[in-house]
Write a structure and sequence with these properties.
The chain is of the alpha+beta class and 235 residues long. 29% of the residues lie in helices and 26% in strands. An 8-stranded antiparallel beta sheet has the order 4-5-6-1-7-8-10-9. The longest helix is centred in the C-terminal third of the chain and has 16 residues. The N and C termini lie far apart (42 Å).
Length: 235
């Protein structure tokens, strides 16, 4: 079996509350995600000045000081990042940033040892629910990293879903017959090409994901990057 390499991207409305509020909100999200099995080993960040890791809950003040220092270059651009790892099971990197004049972006890179968690579908559904409850996205998608790079049916200016994601629209199963999972969630819809996770060497699974993305685009619920820049997609 091969390792599992996943990427979650949540496109958010523009954040305007400043560093202190942003830092507290990021810490709140880390606390929520860190309570979801198997992501229970705690969060940390590498301080390149000292070469040591700052352990979030034991060194909260140092973590905030470090984050403030790396954000000092601009009053209008913030980046918060942290990692969690258990070398035998998983490696996770979470980042929230806003490329200037672009769009707020929460990204979660997940690597799992072969086999992954006992139920990757259940875990990802909990992660999606936590992220959507934390800040309602304009669009959220989880897909194998290689799908985004090699199999996405559109150019880089249009989003997709890939394996699983959340859309800020009310959809019924009949709207997206290509999806195996269509469920209401927090005023939007959770959709998945299939319940079971798939790797990109599964040609049939890749084709189902592409068919789902094509259908979602056809019914007008996949935004372009330009539409996301407005910050009001799906509102």
């Amino acid at each position: 079996m091969t390792p599992i390499d996943l990427n979650l991207v949540s496109y958010l409305p523009r954040f305007r509350e400043g560093f202190d509020v942003g830092a507290e909100r990021f810490l709140a999200l880390l606390q929520i995600l860190g309570a979801l099995p198997p992501l229970t080993q705690g969060w940390r960040v590498l301080d390149p000045t000292s070469g040591y890791y700052l352990t979030l809950w034991e060194q909260r003040a140092a973590f905030l000081e470090f984050s403030r220092a790396i954000n000092a270059v601009s009053d209008d651009y913030y980046i918060f990042a942290s990692a969690a790892t258990d070398p035998r099971i998983y490696d996770v990197f979470l980042r929230w940033n806003r490329p200037e004049a672009f769009v707020d972006l929460l990204s979660l890179d997940l690597w799992f040892a072969p086999g992954g968690p006992e139920s990757l579908e259940a875990m990802m559904r909990r992660v999606i629910a936590a992220v959507v409850a934390w800040e309602r996205p304009q669009h959220l998608a989880i897909m194998p990293t290689a799908y985004r790079r090699d199999h996405h049916p559109f150019d880089r200016t249009r989003t997709g879903i890939g394996w699983m994601g959340w859309l800020p629209f009310a959809l019924a199963p009949g709207d997206v017959p290509e999806a195996e999972l269509v469920e209401p969630l927090y005023g939007g819809t959770l959709v998945a090409s299939q319940r079971e996770f798939w790797q990109t060497d599964d040609a049939a699974a890749v084709a189902r994901a592409q068919d789902l993305d094509l259908r979602l685009n056809l019914i007008g619920v996949l935004p372009t990057i330009l539409e996301l820049r407005r910050g009001d997609w799906g509102r």
